[in-house]
Design a protein that fits this description.
The protein is α/β, with parallel strands linked by helices. The chain is about 40% helix and about 20% strand. It has twelve helices and 14 strands. The two termini are about 20 Å apart.
Length: about 325
């Protein structure tokens, strides 16, 4: 298998921030809007370099979505930034009606996503945002795995025509993917070839899946690790091909059991290649306050939990 090394620890939201500045330099139509959290969502760099192209909307996410939709009608490429809980759930009606229904070219950057937000607690830890966004027609859903990929995904989102939801975490996480690597929407990323079981992962759980695969290799279990950085459109071909090869699947995500990556993979396999499958995800509960490390451990989203599910699914082959 291919081994990936931790280069450093960086915030995915910071990768988006760097990518946004670079996109702004490439295209003068790129604009940014924030719901009074430009520092938290790392839009402050863009605001400093392009003050005339940055709009501080205040704590008014619904209004921000409407402004962004209007700007898109004028040929602008608006990126809106806020906490993932509030730029998806609080404004769901606006996203549905004024962005997706008319297929506006609006990019929604949901920072502070997932349980690893940590101390802010359940009210801010969204674990249902992927489910909300992926069911909307015309919406593209991106969940990058590290800082470098978050930056690349932002640059690609700026070039893509149509609504995009970009899911980003708050905390520093391992940075392990190559810098400057091209991000292809809808194209799954094979990180490690294997023959016994496939680990499909997204976001922060990609690193955990790689760690699990490395440990399982010592047990003589060969894992194929695939980064599903695009939840929608899903790379059906890659998922089916790997499942046919290994005949056992475990999905890994920092999201609720219902409605996330696991359900998308399960639907794909049910239609094309029924396969024994297990989920590593949060089981129908809200979060709580604690450090990011405590949250990932207490909610069973670690390499050890992936290994446990691999052992379980292998008994079902």
């Amino acid at each position: 298998m291919t081994h990936y090394e931790k280069q450093s620890s960086k915030e995915l939201r910071a990768g988006m921030g760097e990518g946004l500045v670079e996109a702004g330099r490439k295209n003068e139509n790129v604009v940014a809007l924030s719901a009074d959290v430009k520092g938290s969502v790392k839009m402050d760099g863009f605001a400093k370099e392009f003050p005339e192209r940055f709009i501080q909307c205040g704590i008014a996410e619904a209004n921000m979505v409407g402004i962004a939709a209007g700007l898109s009608l004028c040929g602008k490429v608006p990126f809106i930034g806020g906490f993932a809980e509030f730029v998806t759930g609080r404004v769901y009606d606006q996203i549905r009606q004024v962005v997706c229904y008319s297929n506006k070219n609006v990019k929604i950057c949901g920072s502070h996503a997932g349980i690893s937000l940590g101390e802010d607690g359940a009210t801010h830890q969204t674990m249902e945002d992927i489910a909300l966004m992926k069911v909307l027609p015309n919406m593209t859903v991106l969940v990058p795995a590290d800082f470098n990929q978050a930056k690349a995904a932002t640059l690609t989102a700026a070039e893509h025509v149509g609504p995009v939801y970009l899911r980003l975490g708050r905390s520093k996480m391992p940075c392990f993917l190559p810098e400057g690597e091209k991000f292809e929407i809808g194209k799954a990323q094979l990180l490690s070839e294997g023959k016994d079981v496939t680990l499909f992962a997204c976001g922060h759980l990609v690193w955990e899946a790689l760690q699990a695969a490395e440990q399982l290799e010592k047990e003589g279990i060969s894992c194929e690790v695939i980064n599903i950085h695009t939840i929608k459109p899903l790379d059906v071909e890659a998922i089916v091909a790997s499942a046919r090869k290994t005949r056992a699947v475990v999905t890994c995500e920092e999201h609720l059991f219902n409605g996330g990556l696991g359900d998308s993979v399960a639907q794909t396999l049910a239609l094309h290649c029924p396969t024994p499958m297990e989920y590593v995800a949060v089981d129908d509960k809200f979060g709580e306050s604690g450090t990011p490390d405590e949250m990932l451990t207490n909610y069973h989203l670690r390499a050890a939990d992936i290994i446990e599910k691999v052992h379980k699914v292998l008994t079902r082959k």
